[in-house]
Amino acid sequence: MRFVWAVTAFVLAALMIGAGIAQRTVFQGPKTESQAISVTGDAPYVLIDGAVLNSHDGSQTLRVQEDGTIFAAYGRTADLEAWLTPSEYTHITEDDGEIASEAVAAKNPPAADTEPISPIGSDLWLDEFQQDDVLITPLQLPADMSLLVATDGVAPAPSSLSLTWPTGATTPWAGPLIVGGSILLLGGIVLYILGVRHARRSRGPRRKGLPLPVTEPIDLSVEEADKGVISATPGRRQLTRGRRRMVVVPAVAVSALLFAGCSADAWPQFGSTPTASPSPSVVVPHDQGSPVVTQAQAERILARVSEDVAAADEAKDPAAAALRLTGPALATRETAYTLKDVADAPVPAAVPASPVRVVLPEAYDQWPRTFFAVVETGTTTADVIMSLTQADPWSPYKLTNESELVADASLNLAPTYVGAVAIDPESPFLTLPPNEVAAAYADIITNGDASTYADLFDASSDPFRTLVAQNRAERMDAFNQTAAQTGTLTFSASAGAEEPKSLATLDSGAIVAVTVNETDTVVPTNTDAVIKLDNNPLVQTLTGVPQSSTGFTTTYLDQLFFFVPSQSSSKRIQLLGYSSAILDAKVVP
């Protein structure tokens, strides 16, 4: 009976293993489907629409073949179309399942002598790729994103492109069939061995009553040669064990080989689909724009800004700095470069790049665009809060304002993937409109607690106001000891010329970046006196004269970030960060 069960197990194992292998080979459908894209014409760019990328379910794989360097980038469709307005390009679209190719003419072609804009390294791309001859990259883009393909932006774009999607074909029962068949095969082998063992033990008839042979004692004097002949034949039990080992080992090896070919898609997937854990919801207005940068995009931009500014600092080159700086950030750098040969001149701090703690992008689909970021310095100095702006689709993001954080304020900010709307400079819904914050704070610096705006600002979390007051008192004391008889020193502050940059918080407040100009003026009190700059090489270098009979005016630029609560809030305006540097010095006319 054991042989019958063994044969049955062998047959079932062969059927199951064969069926499992057939599912993974002859009966298995294609795992991917591809769409070739033929490009005609000599346009320098190919724009593959998001509808084409999502014409099939699953992730996409782009394959481009062309001699030389191949460039590809992806981003929001509207951003790519805006970037392409000065150039002609081929637009690949999808209509009712059909792939269509359309030639799009340049809307604002540049002048003939204008240098073509390179697509490489644009801050507008969410990511970009470069490879020689063949470019293959996996993607997973939503419908509102598109893909840009080019060579160098001048030569015709590659003409041989294809997209590949997974079909989702699986063989969920191949694994169980192969494993189940292997188990049956092993069981059949065991049954077969047991049957052979049983048959050998019961071999031959056993008759009762037959006379047994008379046993005789073994003659110990038998020669060694004869004993060798007798002991050379092993017992039958030893032969059986040896054969069993030779049978079992190959069976285990065969099973291991079968299991090695079973991947995850060869098994059924049981259980419910995992659900995301609940998180606080953010209601986004239907007319709100998209965030201008993603977290990864902002980190890449900050790294580029840090690298480019570091190179400009090394060369003390204002033109190089202007590639990544603008506004007050550039103005203070230009002054620092002018003072490069002055002993003990202040050295501008490097722009930190990582780690990025906070990214608050503006939710806006046009230009200019702005985002705020907080970056750890990794040193004993405080973290840095920055504002960066992109003037148009073809310009890089530039650092406009930079300050050291003074407090780790708890702000209710929108997630990076949602973004924040910009606040109108004249908005009446805040404690102060953004375009009045700088003037109000300048009045506080000048008049202290006597200022009419003092009650609107939180003095307990504002070390900058205290530092300014102490510095002015020390300088006035030093001036009075040496020049009080022949001159006067006065201080004033006023709002900077730059327009404030403001992004909303979720509690109807706003983060506002402004500038304040502090001015020190020293003039002689009689016509015979002159103001000398023997002990002030900074002002002497900036003015180009060692003394003046009319006096000097020195301007310091303060870059300030505030949290301005809503008008209905009981909170006060809080200083988030500050930085101060000498901006200019002039002879009093």
TrEMBL record:
<protein>
    <submittedName>
        <fullName>Glycosyl transferase</fullName>
    </submittedName>
</protein>
<keyword id="KW-0472">Membrane</keyword>
<keyword id="KW-0812">Transmembrane</keyword>
<dbReference type="GO" id="GO:0016740">
    <property type="term" value="F:transferase activity"/>
</dbReference>
<keyword id="KW-1133">Transmembrane helix</keyword>
<feature type="transmembrane region" description="Helical">
    <location>
        <begin position="246"/>
        <end position="267"/>
    </location>
</feature>
<keyword id="KW-0808">Transferase</keyword>
<feature type="domain" description="DUF8094">
    <location>
        <begin position="291"/>
        <end position="586"/>
    </location>
</feature>
<feature type="transmembrane region" description="Helical">
    <location>
        <begin position="173"/>
        <end position="194"/>
    </location>
</feature>
<dbReference type="InterPro" id="IPR058407">
    <property type="entry name" value="DUF8094"/>
</dbReference>
<dbReference type="Pfam" id="PF26366">
    <property type="entry name" value="DUF8094"/>
</dbReference>
